[in-house]
Design brief:
Helix content is 20%, strand content 25%. It folds into 2 domains: 220 residues, no CATH class; 308 residues, DNA primase, PRIM domain (Alpha-Beta Complex). By secondary structure, the protein is α+β, with helices and mostly antiparallel strands. It is elongated, with a radius of gyration of 28 Å.
Length: 549
């Protein structure tokens, strides 16, 4: 038992933070393009011993990647001829950058053109013990690692010895298997080509790049991104030519439109006021980039049938969740089987351009999509950071809070996608892999935000009631609750000029012209045409939230 405890201390160090250890790994990869794990989380150990993995990797050249779990990362070597049980063999092993723990069961295809592009299988995996030293990290630094492997294919004692550094600065090592009871003369890794994770070969992985395998071998098809066709020029011209009301056909759907010239938004500056026709046209034109962010999610609607009235005594809009009885049958719905008495039971799910046009015709100004999808309604796919300014919060204060969140996320290895709220605030959306509950996600965001609040306590209030915040900003983690929502990307907001909630880059926080309501329905389309959908990568970037302990 004492030896085992010593081994654990030596080789695992109980998940010390990976910190700068993954800087090189992350710098070489674009995680919006490669399915490789980013290292946003450090998976808790499930075995007494640290783990190892060998991956067969067909990139420019076939090689095997040998990785040992040491101090919270996978310390890695590329072995061109593979790891063998033959004690007569001496194989070259090139020491490469540390990899994240989540890489231990990565199996799939790295896209061509990306670093390491090619197919990867989990050729072997298991646990290992350190021999001849007390500290695995120190043994690697000293250039000699003795390990005993307990894998499916590989067992027994192996030795890695550093021999030299080549002219490119890469450490060259020699890998050998000791002559013990597990040694096998003539044993060739190429005679054992299947994955121990899925049973597949590299060739089978390469033929099926859009599929993933779980540890129990079950296939999960990655849903291909749906591309939404934009409205045609003829369809938009027909909308412009329509009178105050009439039937308009959009992508084969006939819509009965009314009050098209009704002013829904007051003018901003010298621009003319915004009509219902303008709102419908905007939502139809932005639909190809907006709909992917709404797909398969229930919608909460903020409707203003009497128009947006900003006067203190003016009429206010109202929230609607329940699908109205007059909604056409072609609109997709989701039924909430867990709704309590008096709660909404059926929600609209926007899955086509015509749905956005129909909603806009009913003065649904704001569209708020749930952060969970209808196939797993209790599992959020985003952790939401809502930086809500108070009356005393300046724009510089708001940017300071956003930058502090960016610094914290960078330190954690988590990618957040910022956007303006379209009113006064800023938001950060963190895409997460299904798994955590809403309670767990909310607790994680609260812990992060409270840590940031301690850095600038003069900018942040934690009071629930607005009147008690004394004009300070609120970092509202409470939005991470089922059915509570933030405004969707590209949604219009109820304010003069019809401002839009717009995704931005982190670098744009330095733009002196940036404001939360900078873009309106008159400028948003040109912005998207120039920048593209800056939040599109979030749709294919599921992350695991790391522990904040």
């Amino acid at each position: 038992m004492a030896a085992r405890a010593k081994q654990q201390r030596a080789s695992r160090s109980k998940q010390r933070g990976d910190g700068d250890k993954l800087t090189t790994y992350r710098a070489k990869r674009d995680f919006a393009k490669t399915p490789e794990p980013s290292g946003a989380s450090t998976r808790a150990a499930t075995t007494d011993r640290p783990r190892f993995v060998v991956q067969r990797h067909r990139a420019r050249r076939l090689h095997y990647d040998l990785r040992f779990e040491i101090d919270g990362v996978l310390v890695s070597w590329a072995v061109p001829k593979g790891v063998t049980l033959d004690p007569k063999e001496r194989h070259l092993a090139v020491h490469v950058e540390d990899h994240p723990i989540d890489y231990i069961d990565f199996e799939g295809v790295i896209p061509e053109g990306e670093y390491g592009g090619g197919d990867v299988i989990v050729w072997d995996e298991g646990t290992w013990e350190l021999h001849g030293a007390d500290d695995a990290a120190r043994a690697v630094a000293d250039g000699e690692l003795h390990a005993e492997l307990f894998g499916h294919k590989l067992r027994g004692r192996i030795v890695l010895v550093r021999t030299r550094t080549d002219d490119r600065g890469r450490e060259q090592w020699i890998l050998l298997h000791k002559r013990d009871e597990h040694a096998v003369d003539g044993w060739d890794p190429e005679d054992h080509p299947q994955s121990v994770l899925s049973g597949r070969t590299n060739e089978e992985v390469a033929r099926d790049p859009d599929r993933e395998w779980t540890r129990d071998g079950a296939r999960e098809l990655r849903a291909p991104a749906v591309e939404y066709e934009p409205a045609t020029e003829d369809e938009l011209a027909a909308l412009d030519a329509l009178g105050a009301k009439g039937t308009w056909t959009i992508q084969g759907v006939d819509l009965r439109l009314t009050n098209l010239d009704k002013v829904l938004f007051p003018a901003r500056g010298e621009e003319p006021a915004i009509t219902k026709r303008d709102l419908i046209r905007y939502y139809v034109e932005i639909a190809p980039v907006m709909l992917p962010h709404l797909a398969d999610r229930p919608l909460n609607l903020h409707r203003f049938p009497d128009g947006v009235d900003v006067r203190p005594s003016g009429k206010r809009g109202f929230w609607q969740k329940q699908v109205p009885s007059h909604a056409p049958s072609w609109i997709r719905r989701w039924h909430n089987p867990d709704a309590d008495a008096g709660e909404s039971t059926d929600y609209i799910v926007a899955d086509r351009v015509a749905t956005l046009a129909w909603l806009a015709n009913h003065a649904a100004v704001e569209l708020h999509a749930w952060t969970s999808r209808i196939d797993a309604i209790d599992q959020p796919t985003y952790a939401l950071i809502d930086i809500d300014p108070g009356e005393r919060t300046t724009w510089d204060d708001l940017v300071t809070l956003a930058r502090l969140h960016k610094t914290a996320l960078d330190h954690l290895g988590v990618r957040g996608y910022p956007k303006t709220s379209g009113r006064r605030g800023l938001q950060v959306w963190i895409p997460i892999a299904p798994g955590p509950t809403y309670d767990e996600t909310r607790a994680w965001v609260e812990a992060l935000s409270r840590a940031i609040g301690k850095v600038v306590p003069d900018l942040v209030s934690w009071s629930w009631e607005k009147e008690e915040r004394k004009g300070l900003a609120r970092l509202d983690y409470t939005q991470n609750v089922i059915s509570k929502t933030l405004v969707a990307p590209y949604s219009v907001r109820p304010a003069p000029g019809a401002p839009v909630s717009m995704p931005i880059t982190w670098d744009e926080l330095d733009d002196p012209d940036l404001r939360s309501d900078r873009w309106t329905i008159r400028t948003a389309l040109a912005r998207v045409a120039e920048q593209g959908d800056l939040m599109a990568p979030a749709l294919r970037d599921p992350q695991r939230l790391p522990s904040l302990d």
